[in-house]
Each structure stands twice: as C-alpha cells, then as structure tokens.
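SEQUENCE-TO-STRUCTURE ENTRY
===========================
Question of interest: how does this chain fold, as expressed in backbone structure tokens?
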Amino acid sequence: MQTLVPFPCLAALRGALLPALCALALTMAAAPPARAQSKGDLERDRNRGRAMLALVKDYLKEYYYDPKYHGMDLDARFKAAEAKIAEAQSLSQVLGIIAQAVTELNDSHTVFIPPPRPVDVDYGWKMQVVGDSVYVTAVKPGSDAEAQGLRPGDEVLSVDGFRPTRATLWKMEYNYSVLRPQPGKRVVVRSPDGEQRELALKAKVEKLDKAVNLVQLYNEYEEEREDARKLPRFYVEGEGADGVLIWKLREFGFTESRVDEMIARARKHKALVLDLRGNPGGAVKTLQRMIGYVFDRDVKLGELRRRKETKPLVAKTRGGEKVYKGPLYVLVDSASGSAAELFARIVQLEKRGVVLGDRTAGAVMVSITRPGLLGDVSSGNMIPYGLSVTDADIVLSDGQSLEHKGVTPDVALLPTAADLRARRDPVLARAVEMAGGRLTPERAGAIFPPEEELKSTRR
C-alpha cells in the first residue's frame, strides 16, 4: 500500500510493517532455526547490526525515488556506518548508527524501523510545536508527570539538556520512543505565568519478551487501533440540517465504505468543519476518495515522481448528489502531516474552502514499508525490523512540493499557553463561527480533549 504517513507516527509505520512481516514469516517457515546464542553478546548485536544495515542499504538502492540520494554518496555513508558498528559498545549504539545513516537523507518518510525493544515505555505526557515554541498539550491522569505538576500550557524549554524545536522535535520523539526508550525524562518547563521549574519525570516501564511473536504483536496493534477508532469523531453545533458538523479525522486510513458513510452524514448539515489537527496522514486511496467527495469535478492533485517514471495523481469526483457541496473549513496544526497536508493544500489551491490553524509538518512524500527479520523464523518468535522508504515525491499543480515547507493556513490562529492550560480551543471556535455557528473556546476545548488520545498512544 502507498502511504503518506510521516514519522513519528510510530503506530502507523508498525501497522504497515506487520502484514509484510507476517507474509515473510510464512514464506520462510521451513527455514532451519537460528543458531542459539547467548543474550547480551556484543558481537552478536554487531553482526545483527551489519545484517540490518546491509538490508536497509539494498532497499534504498532498489526503491528510493531519487537515484542521486540528494547528492549523498550512499556507498561511502554506509561504509562509514559499518565501521562505526564495529566499534559500537551496545545495541542502542548499533541501532543509532543505522538510524543516523538513514536520517542523513533528511527525508520525512525514509526512516529505519528498528527491532522492538524489550520494554514498553509510557511517558504519560505529550508535547507539540505551537508556532515557534513547544508546549505540553496533554498529561495522562495517574502518571508521574501529573503527580509532579506538569500541566498543559507549560512551555518545554529543554528535555535532558536539549531544546526541542519545530525542526528537531520529531528526532527527539524518535529517539525516546523507538531507538532508546528511557525510564524518564528531565525537563525544564515554563508555566504560563512565567515560573520556570525543572522536573525529573518517571515513565511507566513494562518489561517485554525479547523474542517477538508476530501474531501477538499484530493483534495488539489492531486492538490499539480499534481503541483509537472509538474516540469521539463527530459533534454538531446547532440543530439538524441547520447545524455545523465538526468532524475530527485522526488519520486517512478508513475503508471506502466508511468514508462514504461519513460524507453522507456531512451532506445533511449546512457546513463542515474538518479537523485535521494531529492527523499524521495515511493511505493515498483514502485521500483521493476524500478529495473526490468535496469536488464536483476530477482534480489533479499533482505528479508522483519516482526513480524511473512520473505519473499524475488524480482524485476522481464521486459525482452528482454524492458530493458534499457546502462550506468547508479545514483545521491544521504542526502535527498535521502528509495526506492531511495535501488535503488542506488542495482545498487552498482550488479555492474550495478555508484553512485555519498553524503551519503544518512539511512531511509530504509517498512511501512503502519493507520488512526484515532476525532470529528463529520457524518458531514464530523472531525479531522484526524494517525500513519506511520514500518511493515517490509529490509535486502539486503549482509546481511546488510541501516537503520541509508545509501548508501556511489562510487564517493563522494559535492557542496561547493560557488557552492550553485552560483547555480552550480558539481555533475550533473561530472555524464554527465562520461557518455560521456559535461555539465558545471553552466548549470547543471539551469536545475532543487531548487526554483522550493518550489513552491509546504511548508517549
């Protein structure tokens, strides 16, 4: 499947990887068991690192859309990485070396997906870029972060001595959530009233088996996604057909029938506010179907530029009475990525609606996920890993790519630190007002509380 999901949407990448791994495991079921080796053997970890590095390099050479690798000497880069692995003193260092070799491409969708670590770490709080600053946006009830007084609206000045920025936050999340899960984080934050304090926040750590059963892993992933699907998605401000429908779309990953069902609901209301804040993207087909439902004509989204070919990317209208023709207001923020950004930008370019909020992530490419396995394949207990690799760039009808640029809203509007602290949502309130409804920032902030997302995601 072609996906438009930027890092650090870890669950989405893992979900794309698991079916491929299960299929690979089935084709290799007759392979002899891996030779038993002692745990903690450094040379074993180095050898596994070399194997992963070699497969990642092969995948880049086969699938990466730019044969020149943005001017990088790929062979030299990976030769240097192999030399570093020979000197690595821990598994974390090995994985970090492989990840660094890939991230040097500076490509939002080309990311090393390392083997799962033997711990499940829940930090209990979430931070996000708002404008040019980073703020705490949610704190999980019962977490150590809550106990120590961390609250939404606290500006994050540093994490373990490093200042998070719009350019670096995803790398920080990748490091803490994937490469090197930690038992906690030492943060310096500033409250909306200006008070600065340092906190040593403990994470909830659960030890896991080092060997991974793919069936169990896939089932757990599906359970997490099902929990996410149950979160509130609709709210109507007003009565019946006179009301404004607010649709919180958390990902572009629904079936065609589900998209049809939701658009049919939207047609019954006078205006639609589509909230894509925090939406990391998803499947190309879902994006095309969504676009086809808000335009009464076919729309060329742009061109898919691959290594050996360029093809148009077109969304065909659903036609006639199936199309939602009412006013459209699209909300975005710094965590809106990929397919969410494309939807917002197409709405702008075609003058179909109004985009409100913060500048988006600037992470817009098309990727595929390639799997790898280490360990005992015949038993089903093995170590999965993989690579999310960009196989196409998307150039829009204006000749521009959104990668590293993002979408600048028509109406730039950011919550303040005080808004975050008080759980007010001035962006949603403004959109509803523009759509002809009436909604206070206080009421808007209670419709889709950010703490709900922490119930089904690990931070």
